[in-house]
Amino acid sequence: MIEAVGLTKRYGAKTAVHNLSFQVRPGTVTGFLGPNGSGKSTTMRMILGLDNPTSGHVTIGGHPYRKLPNAPRQVGALLDAKAVHGGRSARSHLLCLAQLSGIPERRVDEVLGVVGLQDVARKRSKGFSLGMGQRLGIAAALLGDPQVLLFDEPVNGLDPEGILWVRNLMKSLAAEGRTVFVSSHLMSEMALTAEHLIVIGRGQLLADMSVRDFIAANSADFARARTPDAEQREKLTAALTEAGGQVLPEPDGALRVTGLPLPRISDLAHEADVRLWELSPHQASLEEAYMRMTQAAVDYRSTTDQREGLMQPLPPGVQPPMPVPGQGQPGWYAPPPPQQGGQPFAMPQPMPQATGPYGAPAAPSPGNPYAAPAPAEPATPAPAPAPAPADLTKPEDAR
User: Fold this and answer.
1) What is the phi-psi region of residue 112: left when phi exceeds 0, alpha when psi lies from -120 to 50, beta otherwise?
2) Are residues 157 and 275 in the same domain?
3) Comparing C-alpha atoms, which of 387, 207, 395 is closest to residue 293?
4) Does 270 reside within a domain?
5) Over the stretch 173-230, which tens digit does the pLDDT of each residue have?
6) 202 with 297: CB under 8 angstroms?
7) Among candidates 315, 272, 283, 293, which has minimal Cα distance to 201?
8) Average of per-residue pLDDT across 145-171
9) Quick one: 58 and 35 in the same domain?
10) Amino acid 41: pLDDT
11) pTM score, whole prediction
């Protein structure tokens, strides 16, 4: 079990973690959530003894990490997948870690098979992709067969098959009675993996409860009701409001109902002789509940106009382009570019061009700014006069 009591960490005037207390119990996957800069990585570093807390303490199994006998055999961690010497192969990297902790060499091959890197075990890690690096980091965490495991963004860079594998791995480790502590920004994945949540914001504890309780506490459940026409929608709204419900119209014509259970809504619709086309419950997702909980603790937000500060000022006297009607709407397509000759859909005809050696053009193309301008053709070209007979006989007369 991991236990933090009054954990505080300051870096000069910056307080990364403030009076943080929580417990990570064995047998369950505990998710560690929080916005960027909330202190998650700092907390995990203090758990592993990489950073000293300014005040408070954190223990693993009742002892600080640095006082655990042969700590790698008891605690496995993945904090940085890039913390590998690029010139070493995957097997050599794990073998060095095993020899430092007294772990038999056969265990190296076992974990390589577990993470699926047995075919690239002899290749240098500097050529690994991000997902392969994550698998190597997970293999290093599993090397000592520890009872406590910490993972920081373990699915970063993995493909869908790898994400599913990590999810099942976490659950199987927790089912064996191990302590599994996972930090991630993927809410959809945490909803499928974690059973308990610890949420922090700006270094302080925001929530320490199960996933189900967290969603229930930070979301408002409601029912969606839909009727065939506006007249029946008004009748249903009046009946539900009279019964104590709160009804809000939605953009698609449905009604959002709160304060009444679904069976009561159905009974009221039947009594008011209203036919329902839809009556469905809605429960917020973990992402929606998380956003509602942490919206006041986010330090880094995007600007309203993403192009602000990037657009160059227009030259003096130049008017801004007029907006195109309908642009940006679904089904809008840009019109074809205008063509010469007043025929917008006419295909341009290729101009005949003399060719030189190897098929290269004998003269610069008309689009070349450095070429001499071509003589303009008359609008109605006249036929050239036939040569006079005297001109054809001049060479013979000269002889």
Assistant:
1) alpha
2) no
3) 207
4) yes
5) 999 999 999 999 889 899 999 999 999 999 999 999 999 899 888 877 789 999 999 9
6) yes
7) 293
8) 92
9) yes
10) 93
11) 0.69
- Residues 358-376 pLDDT 10s: 444 444 444 444 444 555 5
70: domain range? 2-74+146-216
Bridge partners (DSSP) of residue 200 are 205
In the chain, % of residues over pLDDT 90? 56
Mean pLDDT of the chain: 82
126, part of any domain: no
185 inside domain: yes
Strand partners, 76: 149
Tell me what pLDDT residue 344 has.
43
Question: 93 near 120, Cβ under 8 Å?
Answer: no
Same domain flag for 194 and 242: no
The sheet that has 255-258: what strands, in order across it? 246-249, 255-258, 222-226, 278-282
Encoding tokens for residue 74?
């008891």
Instruction: Say what the pLDDT of residue 144 is.
Output: 92
Instruction: Identify the band that residue 245 occupies on the pLDDT scale cut at 50, 70 and 90.
Output: very high
Q: Which of 193, 216, 239 is the last residue of a domain?
A: 216
The per-residue pLDDT for 294 is 86
Pair 21, 61 in one domain:
yes
Domain boundary among 163, 187, 216: 216
**What is the 3 state secondary structure string of the chain?**
CEEEEEEEEEECCEEEEEEEEEEECCCCEEEEECCCCCCHHHHHHHHCCCCCCCEEEEEECCECHHHCCCHHHCEEEECCCCCCCCCCEHHHHHHHHHHHHCCCCHHHHHHHHHHCCHHHCCCEHHHCCHHHHHHHHHHHHHCCCCCEEEEECCCCCCCHHHHHHHHHHHHHHHHCCCEEEEECCCHHHHHHHCCEEEEEECCEEEEEEEHHHHHHHCCCCEEEEECCCHHHHHHHHHHHHHCCCEEEECCCCCEEEECCCHHHHHHHHHHCCCCCCEEEEECCCHHHHHHHHHCCCCCCCCCCCCCCCCCCCCCCCCCCCCCCCCCCCCCCCCCCCCCHHHCCCCCCCCCCCCECHHHCECCCCCCCCCCCCCCCCCCCCCCCCCCCHHHHHHHHHHC
Give the pLDDT confidence score for residue 219 in this predicted structure: 77
The arithmetic mean of pLDDT across residues 274-294, rounded, is 88
Residue 308: per-residue pLDDT: 54
